[in-house]
Amino acid sequence: MRIKEAYIVIERGRIKRIGREPYGEGSGYQLNCEGLVVSPGYIDTHIHGLEGIDVLEATCDDILELGYKLVEHGVTSFLPTVAAAPHEDLLRVCRTVREAHESWNYKRGARVLGLYLEGPYVNPVKRGGQDERFIRGPSIKELEDYIRASGGLVRQITIAPELEGALDLISYASSRGIVVCIGHTMATYDETMLAIAAGARKATHIFNTMRSFHHREPGVALALLLSPSTFIEVNADFVHLHPATVRFAISLAGPDRVVLITDTSKVARLPDGEYVVRGMRIIVKEGIPRLAESGVLYGSFITLDDAVRNVHSLGYSLEECFTMASYTPSRSIEADVREKIGLIAPGWRGDLIVLDERLRVVKTIIDGNLVYERD
Ligand SMILES: [Zn+2]
């Protein structure tokens, strides 16, 4: 959103007014935006960890600590994410995220939105960095357990539509208000269209860990890109996708459907070296994490502010880039309705960031409170 010579007034956590003139004393937090670049706070809807923190192994304090680390990258809300794991571990993370969600306040950093289950109901052939031992067939019973343990905070789930029972699970999850993503999958074009008809509405990191495009079997990626009702996760680290592929996805789906994500893991932003995450050996070389055995990418190494700068470098406008990092991620998990985040407008949460001309984060404001300011 481009605001010229404007003051943004935030009261009791919500944006009250946007105007040309400042308001008198006692009008809450006032931000004079004149000459500044301001965006709604970024929203990372796919993040497994960062700098030594792993959501799956995390305590409540670790989850909040992750949110604290994110504010310097302009992220004001995030959706902690886990991949395939034993049932007991997933139940534990459901309870931990619930606890973190309940004890969150702006002083702790980015808002905890709930939980994203990126597995375990995925295709082992396209497991990517997921642990094969814990991948399994769709189970409504298990998902019910997760919904209960999290207190209804499972916001999103990835399902491979070609698995037996997947369509029933997609219908069930959608009916419970959970956003169903299609990913880690070998689904054909037709299988994907059936999944969309059953309620699926988002692509998990488009093109990565999914059947490749072929002109006679366009497959899952094209079905998702061509379906106007779906959102499209894009990993814009320029390693997971060639920059031209990022442009291809955005030009097909548009900024109103593209959700920039990071998909970072525990080893992201750690020094180069070898790490072990739950028994899997990960090698970080020149900042890029890969599984030691297969060389498969193990999540990305960028934060969401990097993704915005990368996409901006492709020629997309500031408004388009901010939309893909805030408003569209919000709409994709219905946080525009539930939390009122992702837009600078009266009545919406006072989550804003101020950037310099190189799109580096200068200030992060959550619920009208300054939570980060660059030295
Ligand atoms: Zn992931």
3D structure, described in words:
With 375 residues, the chain is α/β, with parallel strands linked by helices. It has a domain at 41-265 and 303-338: Metal-dependent hydrolases (TIM Barrel, Alpha-Beta Barrel). It contains 10 helices and 21 strands. Strands 5, 8, 9, 10, 11, 12, 13, 14 and 15 form a 9-stranded parallel beta sheet that branches. It has a 4-stranded antiparallel beta sheet with strand order 4-19-20-21. It is globular, with a radius of gyration of 20 Å. The mean pLDDT is 95. Bound molecules: zinc ion.
Q: TL;DR?
A:
The protein is built from 10 helices and 21 strands.
Mean pLDDT: 95
- Percentage of residues in helical conformation: 25-40%
Low-confidence stretches: none
**What value does the Rg take, in angstroms?**
20 Å
Briefly note the CATH topology name of the domain at 41-265 and 303-338.
Answer: TIM Barrel
The top level CATH class name of the domain at 41-265 and 303-338: Alpha Beta
C-alpha end-to-end distance: 26 Å
Specify the CATH architecture of the domain at 41-265 and 303-338. Alpha-Beta Barrel
**Total number of β-strand segments?**
21
Shape, principal axes of CA atoms? globular
Assembly context of the chains? single chain
Instruction: Give the count of helical stretches.
Output: 10
Keyphrases for this structure?
375 residues; alpha/beta; TIM Barrel; nine-stranded parallel β-sheet; four-stranded antiparallel β-sheet; 10 helices; globular; binds zinc ion
Task: Annotate the secondary structure layout.
Blueprint: E1 7-11, E2 14-19, E3 29-32, E4 37-40, E5 42-47, E6 49-50, E7 53-54, H1 60-70, E8 75-82, H2 87-103, E9 111-112, E10 115-117, H3 140-150, E11 154-159, H4 166-175, E12 179-182, H5 189-197, E13 202-203, H6 219-226, E14 231-235, H7 243-253, E15 258-261, E16 273-277, E17 280-285, E18 288-291, H8 304-313, H9 318-332, H10 335-338, E19 352-355, E20 361-366, E21 369-373
Parallel strand pairs: 5-8, 8-9, 8-10, 10-11, 11-12, 12-13, 13-14, 14-15
Antiparallel strand pairs: 1-2, 1-3, 4-19, 6-7, 16-17, 17-18, 19-20, 20-21
Helix pairs in contact: 1-2, 2-3, 5-6, 8-9
Bound molecules: zinc ion.
